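Record type: monomer structure entry
Structure origin: computed from sequence
Chain ID: A
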Amino acid sequence: MGSASREALARSVSALAGLGSKADLATAEDLFAAGRVVADSAQLRSVLSDPSAPVEGKTALVRRVFASLSAPAVELLSVVSSERWSRQDDVLAAIEELGIRSIAASSPRNVDIPGELFAFGGAVTSDAELELALRSKLAAPEAKAALAERLLAGKASEQTVAIVRQLVLQPRGRSVRESLRDAARVVAAQYGQTIATVVTATQLPAEQAERLRTSLAATYGDLKLNEVVDPSILGGLRVQIGDDVIDGSVASRLTELRLQLAG
């Protein structure tokens, strides 16, 4: 996002916080539905992202087009329409993020949405046929969403199912893995957490993973671990937190050694 969009998103998130308990799962579903309507209408998308269009006209348009949605959703859409965005796609990203944040803000904290998103992402990326089925442009979006719901039935919360359904229905050019990672980041941010992706050759024991999380939290603050098993790193681990990468893998050390020998 450009600087204008980042500022607009920050103000939109503040508006969501101002709604308190009024924003919930139903609000999120309305926002997701509105985002898909905006995505399907080039004219509507153009008007909402036009910085020269009168704010009063844009908010009036939003209230007219989305009159059937819940009051909190319409209020947030009105805020989005009144802001200045760098790109049209940033409007869609903002609406989706507000929906995901609405779910996170209203969910019981014992519901591990990021963990469920990571688990589903791992299941998808480990099955090439499944990943192809979910990203195929030949399959109807509703059919792909129904497939995702069947896979998650009994394994994930209704909050996670709602998010995954949205991501499948409106991928916005992202891979399944990328969209799930983005959603987990947004949920963690709503909880005041940062995502630390930890790549190891084998699954870390729970106690060791918790010690690692605690150690990293001393520097980076409250963290949520996304554990990825990748045998190709051979041993050790690689950690990425935002733009920071801590690479202590055996594969990385072997690569450095080869470069030194070649030099």
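Annotation 1: The chain is about 65% helix and 10% strand.
Annotation 2: Residues 88-106 form the longest helix (19 residues).
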